[in-house]
Design a protein that fits this description.
Blueprint lengths: L2 E4 L4 H14 L3 E7 L7 H14 L3 E5 L1 H17 L6 H20 L4 E3 L4 E5 L5 E5 L16 H4 L2 E2 L7 H10 L21 H9 L6 E4 L5 E5 L21 E7 L4 E6 L6 E12 L9 E6 L7 E9 L2 E11 L6 E6 L2 E12 L1
Parallel strand pairs: 1-2, 1-4, 2-3, 4-7, 8-11
Antiparallel strand pairs: 5-6, 8-9, 10-11, 12-15, 12-17, 13-14, 13-16, 14-15, 16-17
Helix pairs in contact: 1-2, 1-6, 3-4
Length: 351
């Protein structure tokens, strides 16, 4: 058995590489993926390479910039232009980290891939592979991994799933890894300054015209800076004076209007969402309906819901309690206790 470890140059993937090198001895390889702007990846590549030298395992660099642009960046831009809110990490996991990298490993004669994600894979008595929350719930990344297929789950290891972040850092320090104290990235990797609108303008060369903030009756409340600067449910940075806090209810790219509503307005709350591009992990198909808990944003708590499968590629999710403006383009992930049932992309929010 042999394994290819995805190494970003950070502490998590470095410790994952150490654990895999201990487990697979001479059959462990490290690989760093260049996804965007090769020049800015130089320090990460050097750190990953240094760790591999310490571990006495081979290290390679694979350039996936073209695939990343096609699969992740173009979707990121198009979703914002349609008034939605993308989650590029999920697209990257699906197509790059557990898509292209998996194919590269197989073509290189390696049986498995491993990453520094915080999640756990188990195999049920029926032989089905299950995705479970990490032991460190504060670090759990199961939300962004719901897209993994049974084929991928059967060939993936998450060696950090049973560890806490502090344990990972302590082990890296004990091993004298050069990156043991590196801070974690908090932003999307290709927009490190968090200026999504600026990134989109730079990539497209377009000017996104200002438009009107309106209320639910159509009254103009102010002027916005272009729809790519905003997301559904946003309340900060609107620049509109009002006696009560305002939230973004709707972004309409056709009219270039953004509809606002005051907090506690029933218009802001939705009873259900429709999901597209679904992936089910714990079962092949939802028969009749399923009572479960869902997350409609990465940092949101789980909420009770009833799940219906409408066809092979779509789900309907009915919330037990109406939810504040689900964002089109975000993922809704379904849980049964600590296990991921599956999920999909929010295509529509319904009253």
């Amino acid at each position: 058995m042999s394994v290819l470890v995805a190494m970003s140059g950070g502490v998590d993937s470095s410790v994952a590489a150490f654990l895999m090198s201990e487990k697979y001895k001479n059959s462990c390889h490290g690989a760093t993926m260049i996804l965007f702007n090769a020049c800015s990846n130089e320090n990460n590549i050097n750190d990953a390479k240094a760790i591999c030298e310490r571990l006495k395992i081979p290290h390679s660099v694979i350039n996936y910039e073209a695939e990343f642009k096609k699969r992740v960046i173009e979707n990121f831009i198009e979703t914002y232009e349609r008034g939605g809110t993308p989650n590029p990490c999920i697209e990257c996991n699906k197509y790059l980290k557990f898509g292209a990298l998996f194919d590269h490993a197989k073509n290189s004669g390696l049986n498995k891939i491993a990453t520094g994600h915080y999640a756990i894979i188990e195999r049920s008595s029926s032989g089905r592979y299950l995705l479970k929350k990490a032991h460190d719930t504060a670090r759990d990344q199961s939300y962004v991994l719901y897209v993994l297929s049974q084929k991928i789950l059967s060939c993936v290891e998450f060696p950090l799933g049973g560890m806490t972040k502090s344990e990972v850092r302590n082990l890296a320090a004990q091993l004298n890894f050069i990156n043991s104290n590196r801070t974690d990235s908090q932003d999307i990797c290709f927009v490190p300054d968090g200026n999504y609108a600026g990134f989109i303008k730079n990539q497209t060369g377009k000017n996104y015209s200002p438009g009107n903030f309106i209320d639910t009756s159509g009254k103009i409340l102010g002027v916005h800076k272009g729809i790519i600067n905003y997301t559904a449910g946003q309340r900060r940075g609107l620049g509109v004076s009002a006696p009560t806090r305002l939230f973004i209810l709707k972004i309409d790219p056709e009219s270039n209007n953004i509809t606002l509503a005051p907090e506690n307005d029933d218009e802001l709350y939705f009873k259900s969402v429709k999901l597209k591009n679904i992936n089910l992990i714990a079962l092949d198909k939802i028969e009749n309906f399923l009572n479960a808990r869902v997350k409609i944003r990465y940092r949101q708590n789980e909420i009770p819901a009833k799940i219906f499968q409408t066809d092979e590629n779509n789900l309907a999710v009915e919330f037990q309690q109406p939810q504040l403006t689900p964002a089109i383009g975000q993922s809704c992930v379904i849980y049964d206790d600590d296990y991921v049932i599956g999920g999909g992309i929010i295509a529509e929010a319904c009253k």
